[in-house]
Input
Amino acid sequence: MNILNTTIKVLSTKTMILLILMLFTQLDNVRAQGNYSSSTIVGTWSVDVGACMASIGPEDKELMSTSPDLSQKVQQSLFNRSMTFNPDGTFGQMDGFGNQMTGIWQIQGNTLTITSSNNKVWVQQIVQQTPIRITLKQFAKGEAQPVIPVLFLIKS
Output
């Protein structure tokens, strides 16, 4: 009888620990999907080219493998690309070709919206954000799917 009581106590304790761990995991997931701080995005960010290229889907990878020019253009657009989010909500970007874009940005929940000065809108989901890295899932613009589905940014 003593062994049975001890076994029940051990199982009950292990079950409680497991339930508490599951609760904390769920709380972390809710926090991860929750509101992101606008203040942590402020600054200049560089694109992690290798990580972005690795996020390309199989169809686009196949297309780029058959078209070296396309592959080179995609990579060139990412190399040396920088994005600057200013505290006043203004935005600036320079791509790998030296093209500049300005506009405004805002965060609501886990959605980052960038509106260029010529009113083009980019909506992205913040997948992960730390003080030195941001991962952004890019949404389609109409029927056009992004070649780079996930942007990986590193604080400059």
Summary: The beta strands are 43-47, 82-85, 90-94, 100-108, 111-116, 121-129, 133-138, 150-155. Residues 21-33 have pLDDT under 50 and may be disordered. The first helix runs from residue 2 to 33.
